Task: inverse folding
């Protein structure tokens, strides 16, 4: 029996790599739904190759253009945010790959959670923004979240068969990005082209900038809190430049488990799609002899303030992580357009956390409103 896949965000970095995995196992996986925001040429090619039954595009104009590009190819084309939610709510797939980047991925993932679906979660913002509501609904609906982030996949694998009450803490590893060891007098002048040159991973622009600023690791701390039911005090970050050890789990008896592998997102994607089976592949292997020295160091949160701001938002709770995420999405876009400097991103995020109204127990509507208002505020702070 094929597992039917709904891939939300198929033209992004994770989406493209997910289809690379699916391509390797035609006897196991069948694409049922594809969604994309832009890059219609790539989307057209994906549709022709993988033959989904349904596809979703943002608006009616793009839907019309896509139909023209596809000719008489048999596929149902839908458009708009409601169509995304409708497809997430359908019963015609087995696994939803949540690969839409940022807050934009929350609505469709939330719909799937409410329907008790199996979700291969690459959209960390779902748990960063509304982790309390999502975790509660997962327990109610019977939905299953299988993480795709390499660090959370590592933790997931290390925790299988373990008693959660015997976990002392977890450690997320961070490569440190392209600016590891740099100080503010260097960072004040960096531009996007330098920041996009990640030493280990191939990722989309937004997450690559987040990695360079260490915001990505801050977001992952918040994601891990809700994904694994950890307290704030149980979560830490360590810099590991080689990106071979993806995370550690520390137990109350003093034992430590870790998951190792080469930095390749196709590995956690494949694990999530194949779970609970481990599927064989011909990917390049990690060989210990080729990495005789694995190093670790404490993160410099005075220089890379985003990690400290994320930790502060995690401890504060409420809608603070939502504010953090919204402000970060705005400033990363501004940085990529050369409108603000690298260090200014942290300044604006900090101001948003200080100025936005705190809500201790937000509803989903509160999160949506917080996201909107934070974006407005952040946009005024650099114009």
Result:
């Amino acid at each position: 029996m094929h597992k039917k896949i709904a891939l939300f965000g198929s033209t992004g970095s994770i989406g493209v790599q997910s289809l690379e995995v699916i391509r390797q196992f035609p006897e196991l996986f069948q694409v049922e739904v594809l969604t994309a925001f832009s890059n219609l040429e790539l989307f057209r090619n994906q549709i022709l190759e993988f033959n989904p039954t349904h596809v979703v595009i943002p608006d009616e104009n793009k839907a019309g253009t896509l139909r023209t590009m596809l000719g008489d190819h048999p596929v149902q084309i839908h458009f708009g945010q409601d169509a995304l939610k409708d497809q997430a709510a359908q019963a015609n797939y087995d696994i939803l790959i949540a690969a839409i980047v940022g807050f934009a991925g929350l609505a469709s993932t939330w719909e799937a959670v409410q329907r008790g679906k199996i979700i291969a979660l690459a959209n960390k913002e779902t748990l960063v923004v509304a982790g309390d509501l999502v975790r509660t609904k997962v327990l109610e609906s019977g939905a299953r979240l299988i993480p795709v982030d390499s660090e959370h996949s590592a933790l997931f694998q290390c925790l299988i068969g373990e008693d959660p009450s015997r976990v002392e803490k977890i450690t997320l590893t961070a490569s440190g990005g392209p600016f590891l060891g740099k100080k503010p007098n260097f960072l004040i002048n960096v531009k996007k082209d330098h920041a996009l040159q990640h030493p280990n991973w191939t990722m989309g622009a937004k997450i690559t900038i987040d990695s360079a600023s260490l915001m990505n690791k801050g977001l992952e701390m918040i994601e891990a809190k809700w994904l694994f039911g950890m307290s704030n005090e149980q979560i830490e970050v360590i810099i590991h430049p080689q990106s071979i050890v993806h995370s550690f789990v520390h137990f109350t008896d003093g034992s430590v488990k870790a998951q190792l592998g080469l930095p390749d997102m196709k590995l956690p994607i494949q694990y999530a799609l194949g779970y609970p089976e481990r599927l064989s592949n011909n990917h390049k292997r990690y060989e210990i002899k080729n990495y005789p020295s694995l190093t670790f160091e404490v993160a410099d949160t005075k220089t890379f303030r985003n990690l400290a701001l994320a930790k502060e938002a995690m401890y504060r709770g409420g809608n603070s992580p939502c504010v953090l995420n919204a402000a970060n999405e705005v400033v990363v876009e501004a940085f990529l357009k050369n409108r603000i400097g690298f260090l200014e991103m942290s300044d604006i995020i900090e101001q948003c956390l200080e100025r936005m109204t705190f809500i201790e127990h937000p509803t989903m509507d509160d999160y949506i409103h917080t996201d909107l208002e934070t974006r407005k505020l952040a946009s005024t702070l650099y114009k």
Summary: The mean pLDDT is 96. The first helix runs from residue 13 to 24. The CA atoms of residues 13 and 204 lie 5 Å apart. The longest strand covers residues 167-174.
